[in-house]
Amino acid sequence: MTALEALTVGRVGVDLYPEQSGVPLAGVSTFAKSLGGTATNVAVAAARLGRSTSVLTKVGPDGFGDYVRQALREFGVSPEHVGTSAGLQTPVVFCALDPPADPPLLFYRSPVAPDLTLAEADVPWDVVETVPLLWVTGTGVSVEPARGTQREMLRRRGRRAHTVLDLDFRPMFWPGTETAHEEIGWMLDHVTVAVGNRTEAEVAVGTADPDEAASRMLARGVELAVIKKGAEGVLVATAEGRWTVPPQRVDVVCGLGAGDGFGGALIHGLLSGWDPVRIATYANAAGALVASRLACADAMPTADEIEELL
């Protein structure tokens, strides 16, 4: 059995994608089902690139929960750490491909999503403390008990390389931006890598300016700050320097999941020991390929596809 290389922690769900593009949800006739959720998609993306991954999350005791475990196996991701929350339902997410580049999402995660009920008893502590790469998310500290659990994971991890924070800010999961600033900011003091877009950076460190945001992250002890600038590319910053990698141009079919494809490639690059520019260039290409396709997990590229685009 291959030793686990990366454990991602957090959101899981079933994504329902319209099979009709450019129309609002009211005009959609049919949907296609796909595995979804940021932490889950990132694990799938890294697995596509040959990495041994698992996701620590929870689902409901329902058919969609069965589907999540089955889909993870088919994608080569271990479902060993997928728990079950009695009395809750596996989340479902609808998206409308209107506009395709930034589709609106409709989350069904009430009264609370199972992945936000992660408790300390659900955590494989030996894995958290020793796995080569641990991936945590901003959403994971939006409510208790997941907040306290993820905090304890970072404490026990002890800022071991590689400990990655996906800033992952979605306002509908938070009571307010100030709470998100405090909680996500706390995690910056306990990770080695931080990745997010301008909006997420502003929530975390108080500025949307990529260079200033990167500087503030590095000042908190982060070793690699990755700020996604959309059409302007990606800024990567370390104590030794900073570089902007230009974007990959593609025809966008669905922007959802592009950041997760980027994340999976980031994991691959970190575990490969690549330099920051090579990591960002590779991850940029991975994200672009996902944006040129429909669905999230199903759209994650292979290494050959990324190399071909590059």
TrEMBL record:
Residues 7-302 form the Carbohydrate kinase PfkB domain. InterPro entries: Myo_inos_IolC, Myo_inos_IolC-like_sf, PfkB_Carbo_kinase, PfkB_dom, Ribokinase-like. CDD domains: KdgK. It comes from the Bacteria. Keywords: ATP-binding, Kinase, Nucleotide-binding, Transferase. The keyword ATP-binding applies. Belongs to the carbohydrate kinase PfkB family. This is 5-dehydro-2-deoxygluconokinase. It comes from Amycolatopsis oliviviridis.
